[in-house]
Design brief:
3-stranded antiparallel sheet; 3-stranded mixed sheet; 552 residues; mainly alpha; 44% helix; globular
Length: 552
């Protein structure tokens, strides 16, 4: 166990949870009761908690609640399957009915200039089949959501967009970055811009981009990649109007992530203070989308305060996008030791650095030299913090930094070497994605050697961690597409011949694994087993998700 995991395994009893909480809606609260009843009624293997929190009402809430209360229940809260299903059918619309299919505005079966370097006929046919998935994933919010938002947990959005698919029936924040990269490869520039329009709409409404476009996600955000989305679209289209529209929103998002709850100050060995970012959800109750399961995990805690702290850690881990991983646990064998709010994550701070660089770039485009200078200065300040706080010279990696228990945002903590988490995670290499780092050839070559000897490189790609927890989807042997992409792209952008060779090798392994799995199953999977080429991943609190393409 690494030195950073030296703290007590049960931190939740130390002090009262006094962080902010964003109120939820009456509908969400009621649907949590429905979800709990479903949990009691169905076998666990046949139960997906999200299906019940995504239901829409056919009638007003008070009438539906009255009907629910009149159902005959047993002492443990369950009802007969027949009675429950009759109630659901009578009073609710199915999850997903509040979204309407819409033909993508710029979809072509084989767009001109599509993946010109892919010459292998079999691989090219596969790529075109995957490209065809855009027609399956295109949706707009139904008129009912706009006219009667009180009947839905889905939030209104101004324009059509893309959803991830399977159980994920709504727009998600950081997933949208890779959706946009795919859309740009498919020459669907207008659809890519529409996704940014929807995310800016959420930001303007709530003050931050939500985890996803649901009422139960209003208590947290996700890794801040909106600036990266705008950059990629501008880089492909030269759309200055998009930059002008996005810049005020990005300044607002930057302010959110630098608010008191998300920032901590580290005092380094050279007598400098560094303001760095953490995940911190504005919620201390069970996550509505997984309420029944969260309550079971929290049942080991003896008092309300311990439960509230654990619930905040759960929601904050969901804000990270890495839900769940031993990366966030003080005790890797104990799920309830989640301590995400006491970690300064290296990848989150890399994304903040990327945002600072992007905002400086956009400000230059629109002619605001003062903002450009301010954010360029901020980026160089953060780069120094990376060297002082996150960099581990012996490992040749950037690593997460653990905060001391009871730390207050306004009080500087003195940097301690033992607080660096020296366990190896794929996130330790994400800073390579940032040009300030991948342009430094000696640094890139050192980090590349560290990656090669880390144990993360496997037959089918990069493992997310070295810990096989057996139940966490962001742990070994699972590989995850966003991680492959950021590390590969960072290595490839460098001037190092060796780094570029490693990048090509990882990319070929990952694409081969995806292709082999696709040939066997006809589907694209959420995660893959990087130990075995063509095997999809497992673990987590829901069944692994996949998308089936229309095969020719």
């Amino acid at each position: 166990m690494a030195a950073a995991n030296h703290s007590p395994s049960s931190p939740y009893s130390c002090a009262k949870d006094s962080g902010p909480v964003i109120p939820t809606t009456s509908l969400v609260t009621f649907l949590e009761r429905v979800q709990e009843t479903a949990f009691q009624t169905y076998e666990r293997s046949k139960f997906d908690h999200k299906d019940f929190i995504d239901l829409s009402l056919k009638f007003d809430l008070s009438t539906t609640v009255k009907a629910f209360d009149e159902i005959s229940k047993t002492e443990n809260g369950s009802v007969s399957t027949k009675d429950f299903e009759e109630f659901i059918g009578k009073w609710f619309k199915s999850a997903g009915e509040d979204l309407v299919y819409v033909e993508p505005m710029d979809f072509e079966t084989e767009p001109y200039g599509f993946l010109p370097k892919v010459e292998n006929p079999e691989v090219r046919a596969w790529a075109l089949e995957v490209h065809g998935l855009w027609k399956k994933l295109s949706r707009e919010v139904s008129s009912s959501v706009h006219d009667h938002p009180e009947l839905h947990t889905l939030l209104p959005l101004p324009v059509p967009g893309m959803i991830p698919g399977s159980r994920f029936r709504e727009v998600y924040y950081w997933d949208s970055y890779w959706v946009i990269r795919g859309l740009l490869a498919s020459k669907m520039h207008e659809t890519a811009k529409a996704i940014v329009t929807n995310l800016i709409s959420l930001l303007d409404t709530y003050g931050y981009v939500l985890n996803g476009a649901r009422a139960y996600y209003t208590n947290r955000s996700q890794p801040p990649l909106l600036s990266a989305m705008v950059y990629e679209i501008y880089n492909r289209t030269g759309d200055v109007d998009l930059v002008k529209k996005a810049l005020p929103a990005l300044l607002k998002e930057y302010q959110f992530w630098n608010s008191e709850i998300h920032t901590m100050i580290i005092h380094d060995a050279e007598n400098c203070n560094h303001s760095l970012n953490r995940y911190y959800a504005m919620w201390n109750k069970p996550r509505p989308e997984a309420s029944a399961i969260d309550k079971r995990f929290a049942s080991k805690f003896l008092n309300v305060n311990e439960k509230q702290k654990f619930y905040r850690e759960l929601a904050s881990t969901a804000e990270s996008g890495w839900d769940f991983s031993t990366r966030w646990m003080r005790n890797p064998s104990e799920f309830t030791s989640l301590s995400t709010t006491t970690i300064l994550p290296v990848d989150l701070n890399a994304f903040m650095l990327r945002m600072e660089l992007d905002i400086a770039f956009f400000a230059k485009i629109v002619g605001d030299d003062a903002i450009a200078e301010d954010f360029l200065t901020a980026s160089h300040t953060r780069k120094k913090a990376f060297n002082s706080v996150f960099w581990n010279e012996n490992m040749g990696q950037w690593v997460d930094y653990w905060l001391n228990y009871g730390a207050e945002p306004k009080e500087p903590q003195t940097w301690e070497a033992q607080n660096q988490n020296q366990n190896v995670f794929a996130s330790n290499f994400v800073p390579l994605w940032i040009d300030l780092f991948n342009s430094d050839t000696p640094l890139v070559e050192k980090v590349t050697r560290s990656l090669q000897s880390s144990g993360l490189l496997c037959a089918a790609g990069i493992a997310t961690s070295l810990t096989n927890s057996g139940h966490q989807c962001r742990d070994f042997p699972n590989g995850w597409a966003p991680i492959q992409h950021m590390i590969v792209e960072g290595l490839w952008r460098s001037a190092s011949t060796e780094a570029r060779k490693v990048a090509r090798d990882i990319a070929e392994r990952w694409i081969r694994a995806n292709h082999v799995a696709y040939k066997k199953t006809g589907t694209m999977h959420e995660k893959y087993n990087v130990e075995k080429c063509g095997e999809y991943g497992a673990g987590g609190i829901y069944r692994p998700q996949f998308l089936t393409a229309a095969r020719n």
